[in-house]
From TrEMBL:
Residues 487-511 are annotated as: Disordered. The keyword Transcription applies. CDD domains: fungal_TF_MHR. One of its GO terms (biological process) is DNA-templated transcription. GO terms for cellular component: nucleus. Residues 26-256 form the Xylanolytic transcriptional activator regulatory domain. GO terms for molecular function: DNA binding; DNA-binding transcription factor activity, RNA polymerase II-specific; zinc ion binding. It is found in: Nucleus. Transmembrane segments: none annotated. It comes from Metarhizium anisopliae BRIP 53293. Pfam families: Fungal_trans. This is Xylanolytic transcriptional activator regulatory domain-containing protein.
Amino acid sequence: MLVRRDILLRHVDAYMDNMYWLPCQGFLHPDTTYKEIQEGTFDPVVAAAVCGITAVFVSPSDSGGEFGVKCSAHVEMYLFQNIYKFSDDLLVLFALSITFNLIRGEFAKLWQSFGVASRLMLGLRVNWDVLPQNQTFAQQECLRRIAWQLFYLDRMLAGGYEEYISCRAENMQIALPCSEAAFRENRPINAERLYDKPGSHPSTINLHGYQLRLIDLRHRIQVTTKRLCSSSSPSQSQLDASKVMADINRLQNELTRFHMSLPPEILLSDQTVAKYMASPERAGYVFLHTHLAVSHIDLYRFSLPGQRDKVSVEILRKLPREFIARSQKQAVAHAMCLGRFCDAIQNEVDQMHDTGKLKLAGDHSTFQMSTQCVRVLLVALQYGLYRDIADVTTAPLWRSVEVDEAHIRFLIDSVQRVTRPWCDILNVAQQAYNHNATLVEDFSKTRKVADQRAAVSMFGSKSEGSTRFPGPDAILESIATGKPEEYHSRMASHSPSDSTRWLGSHPSSPTPNMFATKTGTQTTEASQGDAAPGIPLFLAQARNRPGSATQDPLTYDAENSLMPMGDLDAVLPDTNPLMNIEGVPMSGMHSGDPSMFQQAIPQPSAGFLMAQQSVFGGDVFMEHYMNRQHGQGGYSQPPGGY
């Protein structure tokens, strides 16, 4: 029994170190969790859910995958058998189960379980701060954090399509996650809300709160650029140059004001990198700065040649040439910043010795952004966009180095260095790494970056534009290379100074209403016409039938989009197939297998020790799992060792 408790403690330690500081994953109260484990009162189904998520961190081998899938199957069965209940206990389990499916790439399960969880959250009115009065502040804060986790997942799944949003910002009438000290001390505090003006430091919110503000802003950036690049959008004909530039400038100013609102101890510097990479908040810090850089890239990559989503020729002809050129520099500068950040965080991790933990810099979402960053850096090499970069960028290039082709290749390798350690844990990381390596290899041979649209032609139409005139990429390539083009005389006449009005080297300073509610800007395309919105690629994968010939395995790319790149049927490298233990269906089985619903799952009891058999699947499997862990040394410290 003591061995089983030790196994659970390892998994909880792994959760606190790798997951807790990701967007609103910190809803398990640490002190309460460890206390209940020691007393034997920790809910065994919650224990199974935590073990399912963290098994690959504790045992990065095929046995970790087997154990994680078995734990997840137990949780899913419990949720199915108790779906008739309307309880916040189920909301906790849904939040953990969704996280497992996200990491594993089970997009159909993720999409559907999110739908049930979000409806349960709305039904419990957690988003309206209608919480049980008999609960402590910490218990209520736990539910608020789960509501915000669903808010984040909603925007990730929507992929820039406002029409798919369920947890609307105007309905999130709850405070952001409060300061960590108040949560852990069970001390009531009035924390800031999503669109409140940032308060003075120390803030009433924690790292989760800043992540959520960035997530909301990134979603609105994706919505804006998605509509800009959507040829079927009813509003496309209404766009003119001044509106496009005003929208881009407005969002850039919001990003700048967000950056200025961060506490000094979170701002990017060598000192904060060293501090956070040695702290339990490492994953949250990396998530924040990774997504801040990627949000800038999302905002400006419409201006780069070879992108999947392309601006129409008609709009490009209206935009001042200098505005497009500055936008290209912005995208490249922030990709460079992300590459330098990857180098800094991996260097810090590589210098740590005898920690008993995996040498992972960042979190499971870091490598998801790698393909976008590598592609932008290769485009910069192809067109020389890295030259004179510091004069026209808002990127926090905190290290002054000479920028040449060798440095850009160094940054690409830095992105790959961060991805490489994850390849032993998740197949999706291995596929991202291999894909990026292929991109670099092909570029070295041809000095060209392949058009991204070609890889996903099954999801969209060909580039628009008349065959009599240059397409979007021809226009963007001409601007990137600085060569005069024969079509330029056909573009609307604009003075170069016009773009400076909208996109200067230095953004404007904050204004008093910097965080005013943005709901007025989120009118959906559906209200402007009868055309159905596009399909987010998370949804496109989820809709594919298992075994369908059209089902292409996918991995993460820009704007939370996906690219066909390999097999995602297993979490771990395919050294051994997952075992079908005791009749529990593995995820590779058809989800409708009747045998799945015939397994008798014990209900959770107050006594943790009495329920271990149902959580861990029996002595035979536990012995097998423990033997596979022997000698690895990961997460063997007692609680409180961080």
